[in-house]
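pinning this so it doesn't scroll away 📌
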Amino acid sequence: MRILGIDPGYAILGYGIVEMKGNHFQVCGYGAVTTEASMDMTDRLKCLYSSLTEIIAEYEPEVASIEELFFNTNTKTAIMVGQARGVAILACANSGMEIAEYTPLQIKQALVGNGRAEKKQVQYMVKTILNLKDVPKPDDTADALAAAICHGHSAHANERLSRVLKVK
């Protein structure tokens, strides 16, 4: 299963693509889509959409794993990130992909075993699980890969559970 992980943002949108075979992960690609602060918000969203569409066409993932928004005290920022997240979901949906959404707590739990883990712990686990030399930069990229790994673990667990239930 090929999974596209997305850490939504309007200035930096992290993405990571992993291939899951059995219970092993292999990284296919990762990076960040960036937009300039001087750009009009409409143009930023168009840039995010077209860039994500190109990434999806290049890597052909089957499913997208998108981080849900956490509470943000700055309402304007939360709304702008929400718009970027909506554009990411639309790009994936228009490409015919299944979409899974996970909270930061769920992602941390899946990678570290602790929903309150520190960012450095999650980054270390991304590096370790994917057998990378260094932690992917920027942080948004590591977060996107973490979202992809989280979905892989979740899908694998659900698959095992359905097999057990079929046996009974």
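📌 and the second one:
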Amino acid sequence: MAREVTHEERGPAILDESDMGDDGKIYVCRCGLSDSKPLCDGSHNATADEADGVVYKYANDEADGERRAVDEIADEDE
């Protein structure tokens, strides 16, 4: 599975103790769908049934938005 994720570059995120969960760990988003990036908000649960070999685009780049399969991801310059 693959996912197209669009985001604005804002520079590095500095994490500290205030970003820790109740268990003392910091969870960083790796799926690209979190509304609280760079922190995980559980949005990855929407990706549980993604099929291998399929590229997905989520509407509005949010896990609660509609998901569709795309044929390919192309750069504007291509």
